[in-house]
């Protein structure tokens, strides 16, 4: 009887021990899965953040590029207008000078004719 009882107790102990080991294993496995999940989630969030940051930098770059092109365009336009204005002024000055010269020539001729 005693031996049978001992055997039974040992069996029970062993079963309990096994159960405990299995439980522990399961808990560890769960923990590992959760950890992995968390790491993956973090990685994905970081990736998203990086993509958003990149996109924002690219947008800024593009806006700056556009602004610079527009500035250049405006400067060129201004320069062209100024050149045109200067050309017109020059032409007008030359015309005026020519008119005055012509008038003077005619006056001189007239004076000569009167005097002679």
Highlighted features:
116 residues; mainly alpha
Describe the 3D structure:
With 116 residues, the protein is mainly alpha-helical. It starts with a helix and ends with a helix.
Q: Helix count? A: 1
Low-confidence spans: pLDDT under 50, at least 5 residues? none
In percent terms, what proportion of residues is strand?
under 5%
Level of helix content?
over 70%
Mean pLDDT: 94
Global outline = rod-shaped
* H-E order: H
Radius of gyration of CA atoms, rounded to a whole number: 50 Å
Query: Strand tally, please?
Result: 0
Q: How far is it from the N-terminal to the C-terminal residue, by CA?
A: 171 Å
Summary?
The chain contains 1 helix and no strands. With 116 residues, the protein is mainly alpha-helical.
Blueprint of the fold:
Blueprint: H1 2-115
